[in-house]
Specification:
715 residues, alpha+beta, Methylamine Dehydrogenase, Chain H, Immunoglobulin-like, 5 domains, five-stranded antiparallel β-sheet, 21% helix, 38% strand
C-alpha cells in the first residue's frame, strides 16, 4: 500500500511539474522571451510527438516559432515539418516555415511549400509573390562580380549592426557591452541590450578605436539604431519605451532627437508622431535634412512594419505619409537609408534570397523596389546598408556567419555606362553626319551637354546610373525625325546604350540646264525662273557658260521651271520635290528656235468655271509670255480650246472670250494689239478621242482644255 501511495505521489509531483513548466513556457512565450522558453517547448513538443494519445500541436507550433525567432532554423524547420505532415500549419506558420527553409538555403523545398500555400491561401500576397517571381531567382546573382564584401575589424562577435556615418567615424548598434544594470540581458535572445558604439577612420580609412558613444542616454533597454544629419550635429535615436496596448503595458520603439552643443548632446526631444500603441523607429534624414524617413507598424499600413516619410515644417514635422505599395509589403520593411533620391531598405516581404534582403527604390515610390542581389544579400538576414557620398563604398549588417549580426565593408565597382549616338542625314541611304552637335539633356538633373560627332558621325560618352536622358540634334535646313531617350534607372551591370538620330533635309539642290531642243547644245545666258505658285514666289537666275543654274529649294513642293532666251520659244516644266531622297534634282529645259508656224501650249492658264475671267494664278505665265513677245517682236495667234462637253456654239463663244481675255492682259503688259490675234476654237480642235458621245476621264478632257500660241510672223 505504501508503495502504491509513493508511486501516486510521484505521478502527481511529475504531473504538477509538467503543468508548471507549461505555464512558465507560455508566460515567457507571451512576453517574447524566446531564448528562455525554447528548451521548455522543445521538451514539451518532443513529448507531444512521442505520445500515443492526441498530441498537443500547440506546443509543437510554439517550439517551431521559438526556435525560429532565435535563428535555430534547423530545429525550427524540423518542427514546422512535423506540423506540415499532420496538416497543422496555419497561414502564419507557413510563412515562417518558408522563411526557415530559405534561410537554410533549401530553395527547392521552399518553392514546393510556397506553391502549396498559395493554393491554400490565394489572397496571401507573400505566397503569391514567391510563386510569381521565382523566375527572377537566378538574376539575383547576376551582379556578384561588382561587389567586394569582407568583415570589418570592429565586430565583437556578440552582435553588431546598423552602421551610420558620423563625422570621421562609424556609429553602430552593438550587443557587446554590459552596461551593468540589474537585468543586463534581453529575454528574446539572451544577449545584452543594444548600445551605441563608435569606430573612427584612420588615415588608411581602416576603422579602429572602438568605444562606446559618449552620451547620457544609456538605459536599461535598447538604445539604437541611431543616425545623424549630414553635418553630424543632429542625432535621431531609436529607444525602447513603455506603451500600452489592449490595457497591458508593452514595449514600443520611439524616436528622439538630440543636437550637439559644445561637444555634448542635448536632452532628448521626442518625435511628435511617437505613439504608445505602436512602434516608431529606425529614423534617418534625407541628405538636405528636409525629410525624415522612419519605420512604423501603425494602423493603416500595408504590413507588419512600413516605411514612412515626414517633411520638415519649421520646428516641427508634417503628418507622415506611407511610401506606398511599391516599397512596402504585407510583411516587414525596415532600416531605411536615403541617398541621391534612392532609398535602400531591408525587407522580408519582397522576393529575395531569404531572411531580410536589401532593396533599393526611388524615394517617391514611383518604381517597384529592386533587390540589390548577391553578395550583398544572402539567405540570411542582410540589412542596414549605407554608402558614402560616391555611392561606391559602404557598410552593411548581416548574420550570414554563425547567425550573429556583424558589420561588413562593401566596395562597389563603378559601373561603366556608355552612350553611343549615331547621327545620319536621310537621303536614299543614311549618310553619317560628321562634326554635328548632339545635345544630351539629363532630365533628372536638368544638366545639358553638347558633343560634336566624329568623322563617322558618331559620339561616345559616359552617362550616370539612375538618370533619364533626352538626346537630340539640330541643323539648319534639316529636321530631326525623332529624339532619343535613355533611362538608366536600376542598371546593375556595365552597359552601353545606343541611339540613332536621323536628320531629314528640308531643302534640295536643283541643277537646271537649258539646251537647244533639236541639237542638245547648251544655251548660255538664258533666263530661268523657278516658281512656287502657292507662295507666289519667283526665283530668277541667268545660266552660266555651261547653260546651267544651281539653286536650293524647299522639299515637298510642286514647282515650275521656266527658261527663255531671245530667238527661242520659252519652255516650262513642272517638277516635284516631295519624297525626294536625292541631294540633287537634274532638270533640263529644251528650247526650240523661233520659226513661223510654230505652236506651243501655255501652261497654268486658269479660268473660273464657265467664265472667261482670268484667275490670278494665270498671270505669272502670261507675264512670261509678254516678255517673250516683246523680246522677239513676234506676231501671234493666241487660241483657247474647250472639251466636248456642252453645246458646240456655247463652247465656241466661251473659248473666244477666254482667248480675248489673254490678249487684253498682254496689251496691258505692252504687247501691241497689231501683233496679237485672239481666236476661240471651242471643241473643234480636240487633241484626243473625247468627242461628243465618247466616255472619257476628267484627265482626258483636261488635255483638250488648253491655251495655245501660234507664231504668225517673225518681224
Amino acid at each position: 500500500m505504501k508503495f502504491i501511495i509513493a508511486i501516486l505521489a510521484l505521478f502527481i509531483s511529475i504531473n504538477s511539474f509538467s503543468q508548471l513548466k507549461q505555464k512558465v513556457a507560455d508566460r515567457l512565450y507571451d512576453d517574447q522571451e524566446y531564448y528562455k522558453c525554447v528548451e521548455m517547448y522543445n521538451e514539451l513538443a518532443d513529448k507531444a510527438l512521442a505520445g500515443k494519445k492526441k498530441s498537443n500541436w500547440d506546443n509543437v507550433e510554439k517550439a517551431a516559432e521559438s526556435n525560429f525567432h532565435i535563428y535555430r532554423m534547423k530545429e525550427a524547420t524540423a518542427y514546422f515539418e512535423k506540423l506540415a505532415t499532420k496538416n497543422k500549419l496555419n497561414e502564419h506558420s507557413r510563412m515562417h516555415y518558408i522563411d526557415g527553409l530559405r534561410f537554410a538555403g533549401k530553395y527547392g523545398k521552399s518553392n514546393e511549400v510556397s506553391r502549396e500555400s498559395s493554393n491554400l491561401f490565394p489572397e496571401n500576397k507573400f505566397f503569391k509573390r514567391l510563386v510569381d517571381e521565382q523566375g527572377q531567382f537566378n538574376a539575383l546573382f547576376a551582379d556578384s562580380a561588382f561587389y567586394r564584401i569582407h568583415e570589418t575589424c570592429i565586430n565583437s562577435g556578440k552582435g553588431d549592426f546598423a552602421p551610420t556615418y558620423f563625422n570621421n567615424s562609424i556609429v553602430f548598434a552593438s550587443k557587446a557591452e554590459n552596461t551593468g544594470f540589474i537585468n543586463p540581458r534581453y529575454g528574446w535572445d539572451n544577449d545584452y541590450y543594444i548600445n551605441l558604439m563608435q569606430a573612427e577612420f584612420g588615415e588608411d580609412s581602416v576603422l579602429h578605436k572602438v568605444k562606446m558613444l559618449k552620451h547620457q542616454f544609456i538605459s536599461k533597454a535598447h538604445d539604437g539604431p541611431v543616425s545623424f544629419n549630414t553635418a553630424g550635429t543632429e542625432m535621431i535615436i531609436t529607444k525602447n519605451t513603455i506603451g500600452k496596448k489592449n490595457g497591458k503595458h508593452v514595449i514600443v520603439l520611439s524616436l528622439y532627437f538630440s543636437s550637439l552643443a559644445d561637444g555634448e548632446w542635448t536632452e532628448l526631444k521626442p518625435f511628435e508622431f511617437n505613439n504608445s500603441a505602436y512602434n516608431v523607429g529606425h529614423g534617418v534624414l534625407s541628405e538636405d535634412g528636409s525629410k525624415l524617413y522612419f519605420v512604423s507598424n501603425q494602423p493603416g499600413g500595408f504590413g507588419e512594419s512600413d516605411i514612412y516619410v515626414s517633411e520638415k515644417l519649421g520646428t516641427g514635422w508634417a503628418e507622415p505619409k506611407n511610401l506606398g505599395s511599391k516599397i512596402n509589403t504585407e510583411r516587414k520593411e525596415m532600416f531605411p537609408f536615403v541617398q541621391d533620391e534612392i532609398i535602400y531598405f531591408a525587407s522580408d516581404g519582397h522576393f529575395g534570397l531569404g531572411g531580410l534582403d536589401i532593396f533599393e527604390a526611388k524615394v517617391d515610390g514611383s518604381v517597384k523596389a529592386h533587390n540589390v542581389g548577391y553578395p550583398i544579400n544572402t539567405s540570411n538576414d542582410d540589412f542596414g546598408l549605407i554608402f558614402e557620398k560616391s555611392g561606391r563604398i559602404g557598410f552593411l549588417s548581416s548574420n550570414r556567419k554563425d547567425n550573429i549580426d556583424q558589420i561588413y565593408h562593401v566596395v562597389k565597382r563603378k559601373l561603366s555606362i556608355d552612350l553611343v549616338v549615331d547621327v545620319f542625314e536621310k537621303y536614299k541611304e543614311l549618310e553619317p553626319a560628321p562634326n554635328q552637335l548632339v545635345w544630351i539633356k539629363n532630365m533628372t538633373t536638368q544638366e545639358l551637354d553638347s558633343i560634336a560627332t566624329d568623322d563617322s558621325g558618331k559620339i561616345k560618352t559616359s552617362i550616370k546610373i539612375n538618370n533619364e536622358y533626352r538626346i537630340y540634334a539640330s541643323k539648319d535646313e534639316f529636321i530631326l525625325l525623332k529624339e532619343a531617350a535613355v533611362n538608366t534607372n536600376g542598371v546593375r551591370k556595365d552597359s552601353t546604350y545606343t541611339a540613332e538620330l536621323v536628320l531629314k533635309p528640308t531643302t534640295i539642290i536643283i541643277h537646271l540646264r537649258v539646251v537647244e531642243k533639236a541639237t542638245g547644245k547648251i544655251i548660255p545666258m538664258a533666263t530661268t525662273t523657278i516658281t512656287d505658285y502657292n507662295l507666289k514666289k519667283d526665283t530668277t537666275i541667268i545660266t552660266n557658260e555651261e547653260g546651267m543654274v544651281t539653286l536650293k529649294v524647299d522639299r515637298n513642293k510642286v514647282l515650275w521651271a521656266h527658261g527663255s532666251k531671245k530667238g527661242f520659244i520659252d519652255a516650262d516644266v513642272s517638277f516635284n520635290t516631295t519624297n525626294e531622297t536625292d541631294k540633287i534634282i537634274d532638270i533640263e529645259l529644251a528650247l526650240n528656235p523661233i520659226k513661223k508656224g510654230q505652236k506651243f501650249k501655255l501652261e497654268n492658264i486658269f479660268y473660273d468655271l464657265n467664265k472667261s475671267t482670268l484667275r490670278e494664278e494665270s498671270m505669272a505665265s502670261l507675264d512670261k509670255l509678254s516678255i517673250f513677245l516683246l523680246d522677239n517682236d513676234l506676231k501671234i495667234e493666241l487660241s483657247a480650246h474647250t472639251d466636248s462637253r456642252g453645246s458646240s456654239s456655247y463652247n465656241q463663244r466661251l473659248s473666244q472670250r477666254r482667248a480675248q481675255s489673254c490678249v487684253d492682259y498682254l496689251k496691258k503688259k505692252g504687247v501691241l494689239s497689231k501683233n496679237m490675234r485672239a481666236k476661240g476654237y471651242g471643241e473643234y480642235k480636240l487633241v484626243n478621242r473625247c468627242k461628243n458621245g465618247v466616255k472619257c476621264s476628267e484627265e482626258e478632257h483636261q488635255e483638250n482644255r488648253r491655251t495655245e500660241v501660234k507664231i504668225l510672223e517673225v518681224n
